[in-house]
Amino acid sequence: LAKTTQPISMDSYEGQEVNITCSHNNIATNDYITWYQQFPSQGPRFIIQGYKTKVTNEVASLFIPADRKSSTLSLPRVSLSDTAVYYCLGANYNQGGKLIFGQGTELSVKP
Amino acid sequence: GAVVSQHPSWVICKSGTSVKIECRSLDFQATTMFWYRQFPKQSLMLMATSNEGSKATYEQGVEKDKFLINHASLTLSTLTVTSAHPEDSSFYICSARDDSPEFYEQYFGPGTRLTVT
Lengths: 111, 117
Known about the structure:
The complex is a heterodimer.
Chain A: E1 9-13, E2 18-23, E3 32-38, E4 45-50, E5 53-56, E6 61-64, E7 70-75, E8 84-91, E9 105-110
Parallel strand pairs in A: 1-9
Antiparallel strand pairs in A: 2-7, 3-4, 3-8, 5-6, 6-7, 8-9
Chain B: E1 4-7, E2 10-13, E3 19-25, E4 32-38, E5 45-51, E6 57-58, E7 67-73, E8 76-81, E9 90-97, E10 106-108, E11 112-116
Parallel strand pairs in B: 2-11
Antiparallel strand pairs in B: 1-3, 3-8, 4-5, 4-9, 5-6, 7-8, 9-10, 9-11
């Protein structure tokens, strides 16, 4: 399973766009790139997933370059409630779906 | 969306006693469930993979005799922390993988806070 590297922490202000980049140099061909959000004392919540190029849903966008060695989670116009830890993972659903969490990025949104 | 519940949400027990934590998939079937442990300010650590009808698969370094896992049905997995000690105090989180081929997400429960005194 892919080892991922993310910034430990990031600060932002309400209304700004936040981009969190994750490095996964050894991502396997069958791995999907998946992002989770976790609030304190809660289980992680799925945000978005992609294989390559760009994926967008109602809460975020995910940009994956052609070489797939990195990915960027983009959160448009963050609010205070977006303060959380964000995890980037490589997920291979053909291998039982086991998810290995890295250190994550602690995002702090200030007013 | 799919919901995974955990019970209890928090528990306090005395050192040496055993504690059982339940993980249920409420609106889908899950042949495979996962158990994680999370210490304060740290990431989630995968403990084991729970498979309905078969023995759990434990990650390296996790004592299978201490953390007993039973996946009795397609909607229920239990984790029993046996002879708990203060160092077992942690946040335990389960997740369940939907068996439906068109859904590949893993859904996480809300977690169980265990405090051993």
